[in-house]
UniProtKB/TrEMBL annotation:
Residues 14-219 form the Cytochrome b561 bacterial/Ni-hydrogenase domain. One of its GO terms (biological process) is respiratory electron transport chain. The lineage of its organism: Bacteria, Pseudomonadati, Campylobacterota, Epsilonproteobacteria, Campylobacterales. It is a multi-pass membrane protein. The keyword Transmembrane helix applies. It is found in: Cell membrane. The keyword Cytoplasm does not apply. The chain crosses the membrane at residues 20-42, 62-83, 129-153, 182-203. The gene is cybH. This is Ni/Fe-hydrogenase, B-type cytochrome subunit. It comes from the Bacteria. Belongs to the HupC/HyaC/HydC family. One of its GO terms (molecular function) is heme binding. InterPro entries: Cyt_b561_bac/Ni-Hgenase, Di-haem_cyt_TM, Hydrogenase_cytochrome, Ni-dep_Hydgase_cyt-B.
Amino acid sequence: MEKQSKKHVAEYEFSIGFRLTHWIRALAIVVLVVSGLYIAYVFQSSEVVGEPINFMNAKWRFVHLVAGFLMIGALIFKTYLFIFDSLSKKERVSVADFINPKVWIAQIKYYIFMGPHPHLKGVYNPLQFIAYILFYVTAFVICLTGLVLYIHVYHDGLGGALYGLLRPFEVWMGGLANVREIHHIAMDVIIVFVVAHVYMAVFNAIKGKDGAMDAIVSGYKFPSEEH
């Protein structure tokens, strides 16, 4: 006798704003890693010509700045969505799962193949929630340190306007050299997070069989009726 397959139902998981900011951040992180690596350790030399036109470092720095401000904008908008957007209520409700020890235990059992996936009130399980908290704290740090470095290169316009506001943070971090070091460490943390995030997304999509990865593209997840 054939085993009856579980019936899956469509459930709207992520809003268009959530998905848009997710992919903007993803693109910005890739560009920031590559361009930041060049700025720190030059791996490409420009063609030697007689005219002063191949400002390779300046070009890479420009790309880095554009991606950086894109990242800042996406983070600000995502923060707004998390606090005020009605469709983001499921994210806010995840706090209830985060502080529930029973959900923690059940989730760990699920990851080590010792139990079913726990029923969640929100969209994030406790491990996801704490990982995202770490990501956003780190993203705030890397944006803050990036702006401190920015004001020491561009003294007019926005750089000049932010100079007085950001100088105390530079002093608090122990000087410009320390700011740069913290900036690099924060990016290392984000790289580790991205690798773990992709792995866990694939893991949940394969083990859960509910279209978990599809949701970040279409917005819809397909949990079983039992779940």
